[in-house]
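User: What would this chain look like folded?
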Amino acid sequence: MTIALVTGATAGIGAEFCRQLAAQGHDLVLVARDRARLDVFAAELAAAHGVQVEVLAADLLDREQLATVERRLERADRPVDVLLNNAGYGLSGWFEQNTLEQETDLLEILATVPMRLTHAALQQMLPRRSGTIVNIASVAGFTPRGTYGAAKAWVLSFSRWANLRYKPMGVTVTAVAPGFVRTEFHERMGTAREEMAPNWMWLDAEPFVRAALKDVDRGKAVSVPTLRYKAIVGLVRWAPAKLAGAYGHRGRK
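Assistant: Here's the prediction, encoded as structure tokens.
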């Protein structure tokens, strides 16, 4: 049995990744803050798919708790074969309206945490010449979209480089770039979906994750599931800066 460790495992696309990885036969290590929610979800996955499920309750913004997850990733006795860096959130306010602490925490969870966990996982993946790392980026990383987009652009760039560097050594690194997906992510920001984007731009989590996992299996450096978002990314790359910036303003308070 292979083992997949997923951060932000109990909600949104993280939970859907867990369901599909379990259905493929992966044992799981679930990482999230809420221990009670972790236990319930772990029992659900074990019963539905007959896999072993560990839980690690950890606030990844707390360095001591983050270190617990790093140590689990470095273990050679039950090595993690798949690391999925999914934990994250967004801020609805403008940069100047948010506190500096809010902004530095956002950068920490979106960029520093996946960097540290990737580094930890490589310590046991590279000697085995085997492993898969998935970093959840965002279509926002291709656009001027505040500090969220800037952090996700880092994830895209880092993952592209890491896949070039480590794929010949047996470890693939893929950045998956969602667009708008129907999960609780935006409700947690305090922003209604209709304020964020028109209905045609919203994706369902199940087919989105299924398409993303196909790209991961192919060892792609960047995955942008669905033709509509591939087209949007292509247009944004060539659009004048003011037009791309206007798209980046959508949904912000």
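The first strand starts at residue 3 and ends at 7. If you want, I can go into more detail on any region.
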